Amino acid sequence: MDSKMSTDDPDQNATLEYFLEENDLIEVEKYTGKILVKQEWKRNMDLKFKSCVSDGPNTECATCRFIHVIIEPEWLSESVTIAMSGLSLDDFWDPMVFQRFRDSISTLAPAWKSADVHIISVKQNSEDQLYISIVVLEHGNHVVK
C-alpha cells in the first residue's frame, strides 16, 4: 500500500506533523504523512479514524476512511472500467461523492447493495478524465463481467 495523508499548507517553510487515532491496523509517519500498515489482513474492512495535521500553532482534524478489500485474482479480468469526465481523484474520494457513486451503481439491479460495489482501482489519466475499475458481487458471486 502506498498512501499518504493529503495536506495543503500555504507556508512552504512550515514543518507539518501528522497524527492518526491509535488503532491496531494502520499508522502514519509523523513528518511525511505516509500511511503504513501494521500487519497483513485476511478480511475486508471499512473503518474510520480521526486524523490530524499540525504546523505548530494550527491543527486541523478530519476523518480518515480506511477501506481494505481483498481482491481475488479473477476480479481483475472480470472488472469493468468506467471513464468519468470532470471529476478529479480528490473529488471522487470525497466521502459523499464516493458513497453516491457506489449507491448509483447498486441501483442498476434490484438485488445489488452499495456494499456489493468494490472499487478495484481509480486512476486519473488527464486533468478531467478519471478511470474507475469496479467489480460487483452478489452473495459473493461476480455479476459484472
UniProtKB/TrEMBL annotation:
CELSR1-3-like ninth cadherin domain: from which residue to which, for each copy? 8-68
What Pfam family is a match for this entry?
Cadherin_CELSR2_9th
Name-wise, this protein is CELSR1-3-like ninth cadherin domain-containing protein
Please give the organism.
Answer: Caenorhabditis angaria
